[in-house]
Amino acid sequence: MEKNVGGTDRIARLVVGVVLLALALAGFAELFTYELGPITTMIGSAILAVLGLILVVTGALQQCVINDLLGIDTYRP
Q1: Cβ proximity of 49 and 60 under 8 Å
Q2: 72, 4 in Cβ contact below 8 A?
């Protein structure tokens, strides 16, 4: 697959991904707790970790399957 993530899109993915990973780690370390209906701190932290990891990986590799399926290309060499 060709690169299709670049510019502001890439920076936003990396920054938001790192923030989500930090929040997930804080949740796992029980620095804060919350419950949103059936979602406990551990489940919420796992969800945040997965989303953060996806954003960091797609930003670092500059490739996104969803962008490819939607025909979005923000990469400029």
Answers
A1: no
A2: yes
